[in-house]
Recover the amino acids of this structure.
């Protein structure tokens, strides 16, 4: 059995967009969906970042997510999760438009679960980062 929890951190953006230090416009999430740490990644003790290029339509629905970097197992989990999210509509010249932005998932393992249950938590760090933390999978003895 897995236990999930979710924390949302950050500030509300003016006009629904934030500008990152690289100058990229990132819409804020209007629907955040928690996820479990990928089970195979937990069992193999795989940690690290998965960076995605996300494309949303003019209504904020995720159209696609392409892995830019990261372990393939982590990228696969991140892509499946981000497809369930919704964002504030992208804008171009004041009109709703499709938009692209980069989104980073940080996967971390902590401690070892001493039961058949592990606990995963997801923290949305506005505007374009998520941290997913899970207990490490119990070692077979």
């Amino acid at each position: 059995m897995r236990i999930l929890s979710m924390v949302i951190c950050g500030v509300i953006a003016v006009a629904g967009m934030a500008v990152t230090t690289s100058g990229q416009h990132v819409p804020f999430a209007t629907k955040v969906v928690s996820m479990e740490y990928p089970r195979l990644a937990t069992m193999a003790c795989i940690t690290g970042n998965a960076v995605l290029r996300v494309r949303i339509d003019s209504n904020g629905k995720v159209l696609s997510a392409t892995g830019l970097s990261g372990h393939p197992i982590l990228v696969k989990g991140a892509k499946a999760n981000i497809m369930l999210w919704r964002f504030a509509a992208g804008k171009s010249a004041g009109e709703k438009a499709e938009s692209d932005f980069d989104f980073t998932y940080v996967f971390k393992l902590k401690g070892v679960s001493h039961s058949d249950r592990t606990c995963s938590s997801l923290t949305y760090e506005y505007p374009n980062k998520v941290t997913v933390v899970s207990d490490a999978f119990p070692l077979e003895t």
